[in-house]
What does this fold into?
Amino acid sequence: MLTEERHQFIRDRLAAEGKVLAGELASRFGVS
It folds into this structure.
């Protein structure tokens, strides 16, 4: 199993989800 490749995939997923969550929070609290 390619654990390094898997970790990179997971990091990319978390980063993308984090950006979405940050955007939702920003719009919710009116922060531009």
Observations:
- The helical segments are 3-28.
- The radius of gyration is 14 Å.
- Residues 3-28 form the longest helix (26 residues).
